[in-house]
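Question (not urgent): is this output format expected?
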Amino acid sequence: MKALHAIRSALALTIALGLAAGAAAQDWAKEKLAKSTRHQEWVDVKAGDRTIKCFVVFPEASQNTPAVIVIHEIFGLTDWACGVADQLAEAGYIAIAPDLLSGKAPGGGRTPDFPQGGVGPAIQQLTAKEKQEDLNAVADYILKVPSCNGKLAVCGFCWGGGESFRFATQRPDLKASYVFYGALNNNEMTTATLSKAACPVYGFYGGMDNRIGATVPRTAELMKSLGKVYEPVTYEGAGHGFMRGGEDPAGTREADKKGRTDAWTRWKELLKKL
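Got this back:
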């Protein structure tokens, strides 16, 4: 009995430590976000009968600026994803990060702890119709903000990278789509779908992420045949999620850090074209 009790105690401690690690995994992102001097706010955006919680950050600017929608990873709207919005505002753009799991996952979809159980299954249950309606509602909202100059772009990471590519085929007034290590589904990789791309698509991929990287040649071939702009760049040695991993102070992969730095340099240059 003592042995069984010891095993149970050890198991309980392991679980507790695991939960604590998950809760603390993005403390660095939360702290960085809290130190920002830019105006941050939460807004509710109506999409049919749904209410989408959105994190908005405004740049310190004297004139109206473009807006960028930030689509989160499969882990939901984490502090890191909100941090990307803040960094976009630092670069001079209004950023809005919608919680596409609003009301559909633990904590209502807001996922400050990383990762949070139940988020993965919930995000996979989102329908194509829901995602398109929600993103269109977010786009319509941010374009009406007085300080927006009427130009809109979208970016996404991991799961959100695929969604940012998909949104480029659904939203005619987009000026650019920035796809970070995401891809369309195989059944969407067709001329019928890609012919609807209304804006340039810029890809950012990790050299050690062939699951996604293997889709790039076919995508490039189809986009070229359709006369569409698709400019992929692969960052040597970087893994999947290098934009987050390369920013994490505890990260050990130097290629992720370099990839993130190089990707941000490229991204800022592309944003200037809006």
